[in-house]
Amino acid sequence: MLSPVPDLLPADHALTQAAQALLSAVFPLDRPYFQHLMAEADRDAFCRQQRQFRFAVAHFAQPLALLCGRLADPHLRDRIVRNVWEEHGQGDPSRWHDASFRQFLRLLGIPQAAIEGDRPDVAVDAFNTTLRGLCAADDPATAAAALGMIELMFSRISATIARTVVDHGWLPEDSLVHYNLHAALDIDHAEDLFAVAATGSAPSVERGLQLGRYLFDRLYEDLRQL
What tens digit of pLDDT does each residue of 10-69 get? Predict the structure, then answer.
């Protein structure tokens, strides 16, 4: 059994180390999606992929809320409530994560009408549906570990996408509000989720980390085919 964690997970905590080791071992940024993006990305393809990824961004608060409702410990519940609150821009609709991502898409040149007309493809629908099911019905520690791994992965992915978009000359750095925000914010969110995960058994946590890694990797691989 992994021991309870303090308010902030230190870098040398066993769960943080396990997540970082798994991330380094099986989801380095030499995966096909990111290699293609950094080396020879097609702007139109990138825009198609990002239009679909918006539905994952907009949905992520829902599995968080489902997980939160299953936690008996009010201290742990409070940490996840704060995550949901931040996903919703702390009460400011203009700062909802979906809103900041829509702004990113508009800055890429995608018309508002096109964004409004988009519908989720089966790949992102499957990703979202799986996260909801995991958080509604599976072991909360497993679900928290999976979401924490996704947050940890996205902190690295966000920094890479932000840098690459600037390097390709698609947008200036000051236009990358969404990705610059998540490069830092998602590390804090991962720590909160790992605090929940650390109350579970080591096998449950390991299973969650592997699920989170697989699901997010699978989503990007599917997006690469668009």
Answer: 555 566 666 666 655 545 567 788 888 888 778 999 999 999 999 999 999 999 999 999
Q: Does some domain include residue 8?
A: no
Count of domains in the chain?
1
Instruction: With respect to residue 72, please indicate whether it lies within any of the assigned structural domains.
Output: yes
pLDDT tens readout for residues 147-171: 998 988 888 788 788 888 888 999 9
DSSP string, the chain: -PPP--SS--TT-HHHHHHHHHHHHH--TTSHHHHHHHHH--HHHHHHHHHHHHHHHHHTHHHHHHHHTT---HHHHHHHHHHHHHHTGGG-GGG-HHHHHHHHHHHTT--HHHHHH----HHHHHHHHHHHHHHHHS-HHHHHHHHHHHHHHHHHHHHHHHHHHHHTTSS-GGG-HHHHHHHHHHHHHHHHHHHHHTTS-HHHHHHHHHHHHHHHHHHHHHHHT-
- Give the pTM: 0.85
What CATH code is carried by the domain that includes residue 197? 1.20.910.10
Which residues span the domain enclosing 104? 30-224
